[in-house]
Amino acid sequence: MKKIFVALSAVLVWTAIPAVSANAVSIGQSCAKTTLGTRVSTRINKKPVIVVCRIKAGRKQWIRAAVQTITTTTTSTSTSTTTTTTTVPQPVVNYTDVVDPNDPTLHTITIEGMQPRTYYLNVPSTYSAETSTPLLLALHSRTTTAKTIFSDSQILSWAESMNFIVAGLNGAVYEGASSWNAGLCCENATTYAENDLLFASTVIDFVSSKYSVDKSRIWAMGHSNGGMMAYRLACDLSEKITAIAVVTGALMDPTCSPTKPVSILHIHGNLDPTILFHGGGKFENPSIFHSVQDMAYRNLCSGNPKESSNASEERYIWVCTNGVETQLVNYQDQSHAWAIGYTEELLRFLFAHPRK
Known about the structure:
The strands form three sheets. An eleven-stranded mixed beta sheet has the order 6-7-8-10-9-13-14-15-18-17-16, sandwiched between helices. It is an alpha/beta fold. It has helices spanning 22-32, 146-153, 155-162, 196-210, 225-236, 288-298, 342-352; strands at 5-17, 39-44, 47-52, 63-76, 81-85, 95-100, 103-111, 117-122, 133-139, 165-169, 172-174, 177-179, 213-223, 243-247, 263-269, 306-309, 313-319, 325-331. The model is unreliable at 1-41 and 43-90 (pLDDT under 50). The longest helix has 15 residues, at 196-210.
């Protein structure tokens, strides 16, 4: 008797499900019976789906689904082996990128299925196509714009002197306020399930197609809600993002699962009244220390962090493999604002941690 072995390989494709759809309503009802982070099996458009529940009592939250698609089937017998490859249509991101005639740095990118989004692209005068150049995504706080984080951080001056490209992304505006879909905060972009992950990924692809981008140094930095979005990029776009710097943000995704380790620097103020260092408050954020420690473990770090402190700061460093590092700096007597010295601190960290 011939023995037949069938091997199946599968790929997970992450898609956002709008909170207003019938599918999301039924999924939400299923998730409401479970706990945060539970995986629920269902079907969407007749396809098998695994849903990661992100419903929190009293709030509408976006839901992420993994659609499992079989890509290759291999049949082996005792006398011969036949490999059959099944062609599966891959999602094609159709987009246009238009430069504002009155501002050559302002781009409007229109991605199929999304509202038009804008970002500022700043290329240093020292740029050369012969040299691979780092790319930094700058993510502003809720209700502000990319120009706000440019002003607060003075990042464009640093980019000119240190030779890296900056893409300042603008959050989607709903109900009169800009925000990022970064997990269990904040309303607007989260409620309307804005696909900020696709927006950021498409900007990276577009800039990389036009300029010589160093793939080992594609970074994200974010302030407050923008810092939450930087964490989401580290969680869900780790194949592109190599390091992030978070200023007074928080990890709002309890199911974060990066496919590659991402170096992380988190800067916080112990007097922050908005994103509380010890957790809780208006946004019910988790403890900053435990969030960063959790990311350190996801980065395959082991053991306790190296600790150091002085009158102005407490510093915790988790050393990981392959040059990856997770670091938390808790500045004393600092609040929620972007303080002097933060930009230099984060750039020193980002440049020191290329992906190997």
